[in-house]
Design brief:
With 97 residues, the chain is mainly β. Helices cover 0% and strands 41% of the residues. The chain has a single domain, classed as Thrombin, subunit H (Beta Barrel), CATH 2.40.10.500. It contains no helices and 7 strands.
Length: 97
């Protein structure tokens, strides 16, 4: 998306593998995209340019299905449906660059 809210040429932004697909999405304050992947048990961080920044593996099961930032914009809440868990992690966008 362009700064004025319009769009331009569309292409593939990011590619993920696995037996299922990405499920939940959340964007941090630096416009990095965090993606919960339902079959890889991980949250992937992708930069605004589509570059892979990090893979954070679940400490429980392999079915991370959704995520959301808490009010502090640094705590990420992740649902893991295989075990019925809600996981948390700290995410500081500025330190991940």
């Amino acid at each position: 998306m362009l700064p004025d809210g319009s769009t331009a040429k569309v292409g593939r932004f990011a590619f993920f593998h696995g037996t299922s697909s990405p499920d939940g999405l959340a964007m941090d304050l630096s416009s990095n995209l965090l993606v919960a992947h339902a079959s890889l048990g991980s949250v992937f961080a992708v930069s605004p340019q589509g570059e892979s920044m990090a893979r954070i593996r679940s400490c429980k099961g392999a079915t991370t299905t959704n995520l959301a930032f808490g009010p502090d914009e640094k705590t990420v809440y992740i649902t893991e449906s295989e075990t019925g868990s809600i996981l948390t992690m700290n995410w500081d966008a500025a330190s991940e660059r």
